[in-house]
Amino acid sequence: MTTAPRSAPTAAPPAVRAPAERIHLVDFWRGVAILAIFVNHLPPSPLQAWTTKPHGFSDTAAWFFLISGFVAQLVYSRLARQRGLGVASLRIAKRMGQLYLCNLLLAALYILAALYLSGRGEPLPWWAERPAFQLAAHAPLAAAGAAATLDLNGLGTDILPTYVVVLGLFMLTLHAEHRFRVPPLALALVLYLASLALGPWLFTGWTFNPLSWQLLFHLGGWLHDHRSPLVSGTGRTSVVLAAAWAMLLFCAFVRHAAALLPMPWAYWVGLLQPERGKAMLEWPYLAHSLLTLFAFGLLLRNATIPRMPILRFLSSLGRKPLPLFTITTAACYAAYCVHGPALSAPTALVDLASGVLLCLAYNRVSNSHPSPTTGPDHFQTTR
């Protein structure tokens, strides 16, 4: 009697990986930061009263760095685990090269704007007092050399050089984390403390000292690793939200004490206002920026962003921060050249709308030709 041959066991079908959910809150708040930076870089206008800058001790540049740190940790740390530190380092170096080239483009536009504004015989903008403007207006070749060495710190040409150096420091902390298990935030704190002593000599004249601002960048990475309620939506409590908003309102009250209170109360309350320390990321600036991020970040949920057109538009700005920052900064230079050192509210709205239309046009063109690679502007993750 013969027995039928036993069939070979069939392999189990591969598990289907659920599609990752995009963190729309990250895109949204980075888009808000880019738009607020655009408004604050335009010639002074009543629109700037609607940003956070006049009502506290920090501005939206802090949002940009912290959220960028979150995205960098999300993308490059995962890349280092999956494909190795070498591949992650090459990707970071490529991103640094993109930032460097965009900075050179902005520097060229800045020099042209400085030459035009200084030669037309009309009142100069407020940023003409910076050494970078004087150098660009009177020695453009020297200004180009300064831009090549990341040392032309003018309006709009001061953020990207800092970002280049901060990304380089992030590469070092990424190697320390994966090779020697050194916590990145601990190393960032050491660098921040060192910046208090060494920063003024290493980065003289920089608007944002990279040794200091890398702390905010690494705080963003720490928030990613610990699934902060700012982004992930977990741990949301009304107590935290109420406390953050109470502190923000108190800071706004201190900033506007002179207009709200009679003397001598305005004088005594005004003593609570610290100096606006930004270059070295002094603690009032750092603390206020974190309070602002938590106060606003806790207001929305990730699933809310795609449902509302205006929120969806701001989220689209945050997906491509580098080209859109370059576009809006170029629009700021054009506004100074066309309209002068100050704007009325209607003119500011026209300039704002023009910048938004340029961003929409870029998004439309870039979406029709998607990039095949995944970078820090194109990320997805599960909540």
- In the predicted model, the low-confidence regions spanning at least 5 consecutive residues are 11-20, 230-235, 377-383
* Most strands sheet: none
Q: Would you tell me the overall average pLDDT?
A: 84
Count of discrete structural domains:
1
| Number of DSSP strand runs | 0
Number of helices: 15
Oligomeric category: single chain
| Beta-strand residue fraction | under 5%
Q: Helix proportion of residues, in percent?
A: 55-70%
Shape call = globular
Global structural class: mainly alpha
Gap from first CA to last CA: 60 Å
How large is the radius of gyration? Answer: 23 Å
The SSE order reads: HHHHHHHHHHHHHHH
Give a quick set of tags describing it.
disordered C terminus, about 375 residues, mainly alpha, 15 helices
Description:
This protein has 383 residues and is mostly helical. It has one domain (24-235, 299-367). The protein is built from 15 helices and no strands. The chain has helices spanning 24-41, 61-83, 85-119, 131-138, 140-148, 159-180, 184-202, 210-225, 238-255, 257-260, 265-270, 283-297, 309-319, 321-339, 345-368. The radius of gyration is 23 Å and the shape is globular. It starts with 23 loop residues before the first helix and ends in a 15-residue tail after the last helix. Residues 11-20, 230-235 and 377-383 have low confidence and may be disordered.
